[in-house]
Amino acid sequence: MLLIKKYLFCSAILLSINPICAAELQDGCEPAVDAADRLNSNTNKNCDYSNTGLNGVLHRALSKKNEAGAETVIEKEPSKALSKEQGNKEPADKEKTVGMNSSTISSSKKDLAYTLKGEFSSAQQLASVRYELVRKATQECVKGFAIDGEHYLPVSAELMKLELSFHCL
Amino acid sequence: MKKALLPLIVASILPAAAFADVVVYGKANVSFQATDKSGASYTEVVSNASRIGLKGSDAINDDLKVIYQFEYQTKVDDGSNSQTCAATSTSTTTAPAATTKTTTSCTVSGQTFSQRNIYVGLKGNGGTVMAGMFDTPVKLAQEKIDLFNDLIGDFTEVLEGENRVKNVVQYSSPTFSNITLNAAYINSEHDVLDATDGYSASAVYSTKPVYLAIGMDHNAKLASDKKASAVDVDLIRAVARFTMGPVVLGAMYETYDDSKIDEDGFLVSLQYNIDDKWAVKGQVAQSDMKMIGGESTSVGVDYKLSKATKLYGFYTMIEDDIARDDDHLGVGIEMNF
Question: Which 3 state secondary structure label does DSSP give B289?
């Protein structure tokens, strides 16, 4: 009876953590543990395990850590003053539609172009950094902004930098 | 442990950039068995090669990358991977006849993890070179024809050749026309009389419907165990697997010669996948390599709870021509993560 209870307890533990370990494999790909048994053979070489099982949980946790880290390398600097024409340009229709009073917009912000920079080393980080840059631009320009340029620059073999240039509307 | 703690612990240790190409994986396999062995009957909970590991790669350039794998076995049932046994004998000279009584006592050391396949290597267009401690090409040639692998019905009870060797360097060719060649050199690491290095090699043809492999070992286990021997140990293994719709048929034939015994053996396995969840299977292995008249017969059923988890049941009979007649009836759960 004690052994039956022991076995049921072990099974309950395994089944309780099954939801976090459910594989989401592509067709034709075996579980990572079985692929590992083959000792790095060419079978499964096109399989992506980054979102499967415990590995997926760890990758998602690390992605959140990377997102938190991405904020620390975002730089903001006023780049150049926009031409008067660029700074004062506003869609007349939009102004009428939303009742905007252009005079309430800071003329200094309208006249300045900003550049936000963020570094990334993976596709997930790029999406996260780009989102953070857009979010910071929105915080800077309460009435919205327009992107003037988006530049991708190499920093090192593993690291790239995104420079987002924009001006407030 | 709360499920949130494990990823945070690992994530905090590994640098973010390095973790991108790392795969953490594992398997938990536990069975509850009723065993009838040598006249003794008992029930037991068995951890069947449960393990955890990580593997990954790091690109050096477009054509070359470093590969690595670290894998450890753990005992899910009693948390201990190491057991040492010592025999003690006591003799009496009391009339009418002297007697000797031998007692064997085993101590469980409590070690949680033991080493499985661990290697580091380079993989490029010209093939793969790796070094460490891992399964020989002959052992890997079995592919998945052993339908009761890691359970009591594993054919290793009857057949030789299931070696995970130490101090090994291996080259694997690129795969051309579904064919891969593997050659491993096992270092005995000492220069004494009759000490000998070993090797293991295989040629594999692998597709989904058809798998064929042939391999040979020469002193592989001797070299790994650093044992000196005046005689050589040779093993040749041939494997075939055919998948025809829901039916998977496997067969293996091997010869073993260590100058004391020169025997052959075989295994035949059959699995029928009833649907996406249910499968029934059976397997027979026979050889005189380990036991005179050794035979292992198993039947079983699998039920897939999900892609990662299955429940299974089995009945295994292991017997020989002398005295062994063991029966094992079990149910278990296997979860891949």
Answer: coil
What whole-number distance in Å separates Cα of residue B326 and Cα of residue B41?
10
Does the CB of B333 have a partner CB in chain A at under 8 Å? yes
Nearest 5°: the CA angle B60, B66, B72 is: 155
pLDDT in tens, chain B (337 residues): 444 444 444 445 555 545 557 889 999 999 999 999 987 899 999 999 999 999 998 889 889 999 999 999 998 777 765 555 555 555 555 556 555 554 545 555 556 788 999 999 999 999 999 999 999 999 999 999 999 999 999 999 999 999 999 999 999 999 999 999 999 999 988 776 667 899 999 999 999 999 999 999 999 998 998 888 888 999 999 999 999 999 999 999 999 999 888 999 999 999 999 999 999 999 999 999 999 999 999 999 999 999 899 999 999 999 999 989 999 999 999 999 8
Query: How far apart are the CA of A102 and the nearest CA of chain B, in angstroms?
Result: 45
The answer to whether B174 contacts chain A (CB < 8 Å) is yes
Kind plus residue range of the DSSP H or E element containing A107: helix A107-111
Q: Kindly report the backbone phi and psi dihedral angles of residue B210, in degrees, each rounded to the nearest multiple of 5, phi listed first.
A: -135, 135
Three-state DSSP string of A31-53: CHHHHHHCCCCCCCCCCCCCCCH
Q: Under an 8 A CB cutoff, do B3 and A33 touch?
A: no
- Model ipTM? 0.79
Q: Is A120 on the interface with B (CB under 8 A)?
A: no
**Structure pTM?**
0.69
From residue B317, how far is each of B107, B249, B301, B325, B329 by CA, in Å? 28, 21, 16, 7, 9
CA B51, chain centre distance (Å): 12
* Best CA proximity match to A51, nearest among B8, B26, B24: B24
Dump strand ranges (E) for B198-246.
Answer: 198-206, 210-218, 234-244
Give the best residue of B19, B171, B211, B248 to mutate against chain A (max A CB count within 10 A).
Answer: B19
